[in-house]
Amino acid sequence: MVTIEDYEDYAKQRLPFGLLEYLQRGADKDATLGRNVEAFSKVKVIPRYLIDVSNRTTKAEALGKQFKLPIGISPSGLHKRWHPDGELATVRAAQSAGTIMIVSSAASVLFEDIAAEAPDAEKWLQIFMVDNKSVTYDFVKRAEESGFGALVVTIDMPVKALRYFNKKSDWKDQHKMVNYDRYDHPNRKPFLRDQATWAQLQELINSTALPVIVKGVLTPEDARLAYEHGAKGILISNHGGRQIDGTISTIEALSNIVKEFPEASLNGFEIYLDSGIRSGLDVFRALAIGAKFVFVGRAPMWGLFHSGQQGLENVMEILRNELETLMGQTGCNTLQDINSNLVQYQFPF
């Protein structure tokens, strides 16, 4: 297995149809899913040569901590769908790779067990501001007690997505979101979140010492609101095209946000991105336009399905090596050398 595409092809050839559809498809007509990938291809790299690039490093920083690469693992649910070890394999791979794992609240392994499996890994917990507030705040407490480094609050799922492929498939998931088992919720499912507001986000932020990242931001207005309500950063995301169809791509959103909210970086407000990244080249593009760190979702699951921890580690190393190689072609020794002068693009396209 040499490329990310090799792992994707392996999954396409072997996963049951319904499970493959779940992993590969998006919401409604898949327009956002396709635009995410296409938009990255519109960003052209401008090489620079006759620069000493013999000391290249992909070392990165997020929330004041150091990592071996600026590529983390996005939150996704029920990793036991892809491998029997589930999130335990994922967190071991994150620890080995020296990067961040964002653990989904829909994990198939208890948060506490994930944390204990790889104590040196940097783990952030993804949560929703669900209508059952006691669930949300208990998740926060569990994150604090288990040594998670941050909370990632997803805001782009106020209602259930239109995923027509799910309705056409006879595939039934056999795995459980075990972290919800302990909660009694006879009246409303704990996933419902159509009552969440910015005021509630600020209340949550004020309730914990953990830094909070807001995930699902696509506009400068929401980026600024996240900053004003006390978040330490945003994760630009459209849920990999899985939640709402017809949106702008995340790389377009990144361009808009850094242009219209330039003071963010001056105030230590960190901007991350996921959705659409398929290569180290895409990572370079995002960093050049203004992301501090990126996260990938589907590619790690392709690796996990292939060979568990080892497959996921190899996926992360492929991405890291592709990024480092491109740095050598553009005169960059460090991530700080990557800047907007090294790319050319025009959005919308």
UniProtKB/TrEMBL annotation:
- Keyword Oxidoreductase assigned to the entry: answer is yes
Which EC number(s) does UniProt give? 1.1.3.15
Please name the top-level EC class of this enzyme: oxidoreductase
A Pfam family of this chain: FMN_dh
Reaction catalysed?
2-hydroxyoctanoate + O2 = 2-oxooctanoate + H2O2; a (2S)-2-hydroxycarboxylate + O2 = a 2-oxocarboxylate + H2O2
Where the record annotates domain FMN hydroxy acid dehydrogenase, the positions are 1-348
Task: Establish whether keyword Oxidoreductase is in the entry.
Answer: yes
The cofactor(s) it depends on are: FMN
Which GO terms label this protein's molecular function in UniProt?
A: (S)-2-hydroxy-acid oxidase activity; FMN binding
- CC terms in the record's Gene Ontology section: peroxisome
Per UniProt, which keywords does this protein have?
Answer: Oxidoreductase
Q: Which InterPro entries would you find in this protein's record?
A: Alpha-hydoxy_acid_DH_FMN (IPR012133), FMN-dep_DH (IPR000262), FMN_HAD (IPR037396), FMN_hydac_DH_AS (IPR008259)
Q: Which family does it belong to?
A: Belongs to the FMN-dependent alpha-hydroxy acid dehydrogenase family.
Put simply, this protein is called: (S)-2-hydroxy-acid oxidase
Record the organism: Allacma fusca
